[in-house]
Amino acid sequence: KRMSARTFYRLLSAMGVQVVHNHADFRLMSRAALAALLGHREVNLYLRGIIPTIGFSTILVPYDRKARALGESKYTFRKMTRLALDGITSFSTVPLRMIAILGFVISMLSTLAVAYVLVARIFYPERTVAGWASTLLPLVMLAGAQILSIGVLGEYIGKIYLEVKRRPRYIVDRVTEDKT
Fold it and tell me: Cα 40 to chain center, whole Å?
């Protein structure tokens, strides 16, 4: 369980999400920090990711986690997976970008395959099997184009998703008096 948690926090960090590794959801917050948190109107609020983004200074209080004395954790693998997916999809569009990159790579590889087939057909006709290229290449090229298109659409949907959350762009800590 701890290994999966470490992997999850590393994955979030790699995707550009600000996180505090291995922390619990227990926290003491000032009224100002709580008011800033309440300014987020998201339905699926991922607290472990949103708290570092509100911009107030934090102090970590390390403690030794004792082994569970009674019973077993009710936090199943399914619940942990759901939490991980919420964390990733709430703060990162990297998975959508990875789909676009995959589509681009497949498109480029299929272009190289077309070049290979043409060279093989022109210069080494005795080594080629008739019909395989005309069957396989259109499928690979269309697959690359489709995945690339889905990735581009995903980029736009990701931007829309981040906008509709209506997260505050900034939080006013204090207002100073105008002395003019």
Answer: 20
Closest listed residue to residue 167, CA positions, set 38, 32, 29: 38
Angle, CA of 37, 38 and 40, to the nearest 5°: 75
| Distances in whole angstroms, Cα of residue 139 to Cα of each of 133, 143, 153 | 10, 6, 21
102-134 per-position pLDDT tens digit: 888 888 888 888 888 888 888 888 887 888 778
- 1-5, 6-10, 24-28, 161-165, range with greatest mean pLDDT: 6-10
Q: How far is CA 105 from CA 58, 96, 114, 132, in A?
A: 42, 14, 14, 22
Give yes or no for a contact between 46 and 87, defined as CB atoms under 8 angstroms apart: yes
Distance CA(123)–CA(120), nearest Å, equals 5
**Whether the Cβ atoms of residue 32 and residue 173 lie closer than 8 Å to each other:** yes
- Give the count of beta carbons closer than 10 Å to the beta carbon of residue 164: 9
